[in-house]
Write a structure and sequence with these properties.
Layout lengths: L34 E2 L3 H21 L1 H9 L1 H7 L2 E2 L4 E6 L7 E7 L6 E8 L7
Parallel strand pairs: 1-2
Antiparallel strand pairs: 3-4, 4-5
Helix pairs in contact: 1-2, 2-3
Length: 127
């Protein structure tokens, strides 16, 4: 571990994460095995990673982009992700360079919905 002489906290060198893929695994799949999300906390904890893959895939897979922009929940179901009935997913700005996925929760017997989270890919450059 080598730190600069003025470092207040020791820092370990960063190591890239290792990803082991089997020959049978499809790199375009959203999930390894089919999953069923059961409640708001499950959605909040597990869905951002899955939707990140979906959003990235919309940039490189035209057929997936068309399907996802028309009906995100049906596309997720087709790809092995089952959502709770009270969750709504919207794919906003599908024709822009900065599309966004928003996940809402709809309360029973109400026409209102609450935003749980949104996901948007943003490119940043540094110098």
């Amino acid at each position: 571990m080598s730190n600069p002489p003025n470092a207040l906290v020791p820092v370990r060198p960063a190591q890239p994460p290792a990803v082991v893929r089997s020959e049978n695994e499809n790199p375009m799949s959203l999930v390894k095995d089919a999953i069923k999300l059961t409640d708001k906390e499950d959605v909040r904890n597990r869905l951002p990673d899955i939707l990140g893959r979906a959003l990235a895939r919309t940039w490189i897979d035209t057929a997936f982009h068309e399907s996802f922009s028309r009906d995100p929940q049906a596309t997720l179901a087709t790809n092995g992700v089952e959502m709770p009935d009270n969750m709504i997913i919207e794919f906003q700005k599908p024709d822009s360079n900065r599309p966004r996925i928003v996940v809402y929760e709809k309360k029973p017997h109400s026409k209102f919905r609450t935003r749980i989270f949104y996901l948007q890919l943003v490119m940043m450059a540094g110098r």
